[in-house]
Records
---
Amino acid sequence: AQKITQTQPGMFVQEKEAVTLDCTYDTSDPSYGLFWYKQPSSGEMIFLIYQGSYDQQNATEGRYSLNFQKARKSANLVISASQLGDSAMYFCAMRGYNDMRFGAGTRLTVKP
Amino acid sequence: DAGVTQSPTHLIKTRGQQVTLRCSPKSGHDTVSWYQQALGQGPQFIFQYYEEEERQRGNFPDRFSGHQFPNYSSELNVNALLLGDSALYLCASSLGPGQGVSEAYEQYFGPGTRLTVT
């Protein structure tokens, strides 16, 4: 069965610094997709970045990059130059052949 | 370009009642997925609709059912409500059923419907 683990319930980062949010996964599917979403207090899930299991290079989207280590089954999100508006819940998710699973989330707080 | 819309925003029901939640996908999208997000947890996949058929289903009982209309909008129905059904229900739309998992399968989420069962 697929499983997504986010071991950091909460993280703090100083404004303008970089932060890494951890995500590990487990799946028996040979092909899968990994995603990160941001959920502000308003509740809407905002897509940030995607990594395919066969992608050779780590995905990047502006200030977001995904540190994909397939052998370790990890897909950590790196946010560079944190901004106050980055404060939110962040969810790692994996899509396999049958469904899409989300982790429990990490609450990121950016300090001024 | 309208994004994903959901109605109602909030809903309060009593145990044993039935509820219908509605979702309109982003313009150009033909696939709708539904998720349940309990307080303090990540979303859990309920099911996905494409071409008016349920294509995939998560680990939810038959009390949870859905429908997709020719205009791609969708409904989520929950019968015999339990207290544990209280949650934020999220709808997400995408283009195609996303069977190619190695493709960029980007879902756009709606703002959700907050269901409270008393």
---
Amino acid sequence: DAGVTQSPTHLIKTRGQHVTLRCSPISGHKSVSWYQQVLGQGPQFIFQYYEKEERGRGNFPDRFSARQFPNYSSELNVNALLLGDSALYLCASSGEAGDTQYFGPGTRLTVL
Amino acid sequence: QKEVEQDPGPLSVPEGAIVSLNCTYSNSAFQYFMWYRQYSRKGPELLMYTYSSGNKEDGRFTAQVDKSSKYISLFIRDSQPSDSATYLCAMSANAGGTSYGKLTFGQGTILTVHP
């Protein structure tokens, strides 16, 4: 079975631009979470979605938004990009209660 | 103070050594504990997943959780050069799936196993 997939793999943007990152969960998984990992740090929680509803939000500004689609895939949107948004953006999916989270390969965003 | 503290290392050991990786935490609500392995520029890969206190073994890997001390460990026996990676501890108050399963990570420990 395919794991969590993310697109694109790499992305280069300039300050002030907008970016959309995409994630497809493991087949059968209904929960998707997004994390930001800055170089040299552990991942930081951004959002969790379950059955298209937001279940949790981390300490990130309103420039960050997300949504989940009926097929359980998800998008993360970041507006008005800042240099500090440069990071590896990770998507994770989980199955039913008691399951942990399985991560995708990430999207590396560079903001110039 | 961070909720989860992890020594970033780096840690360098010879092939065949026993490796000990550790994390401490401050949030007593954490019940689920995980170790992930992350190769350079890749996504984290789940190694071990435990609930509450106790030990769990999987091949060369052993995870220990001591909730009374708020301390978790990962032991790697007979370490191999292919084990060279960053090891991340993570924990949550709830499981994933239908529950709000936010993971809180440590900084990660960089491990190098040299032949």
